[in-house]
Amino acid sequence: MQIKEMIDAARHFEGGVLVEGLAGEEKTAALYLELNNRLAILFSRAAAEKETAALLESYCDVLCAFFRVGNHQKWTYLMLLSDEQIEQLQHKWVSRSLAKLFMILQQQLNKSFFERQNRPFQHAWHLLLKFGLVELGFTPAQIEEEYFDKFRNEFNQPKY
Hints:
This protein is mostly helical. The protein has one domain. It is 71% helix and 0% strand. It contains 7 helices and no strands. The chain has helices at 3-12, 24-48, 52-73, 83-90, 98-114, 118-135, 140-152. Helix 2 packs antiparallel against helix 5 (98-114). The protein starts with a helix and ends in an 8-residue tail after the last helix. The relative contact order is 0.18.
């Protein structure tokens, strides 16, 4: 996956929660709020519907929100994964409970925010990627195509 390029696209995305004029902890909180909101929408959709296009779009919204937090916190280096690491995630087990997976993601994100720790953020990132690849069954190519269609076009950059 072209994670670095996806991070760059998120850096220029101006949608989502309005953070203009916010600084410091308030901006950080607003970005986490956006991420938590997008994550809740995704998991609600995953539990209720199986329409692939809507789920993929919602998943990409969560990716962008994750990248925005990572950019703001200067943790994007923790988000970079090799193709081998992505492949390893694709071979993980299917979670028995979407609700528990959601709660674990929330716990890790809250820990990273309140305790200002990057390791829980990285753990949540790996869980999110695994969720998209395993539970939702998306391929890295599907994710990239949808993500770049949605977020690279937002600021008129050429595709690939």
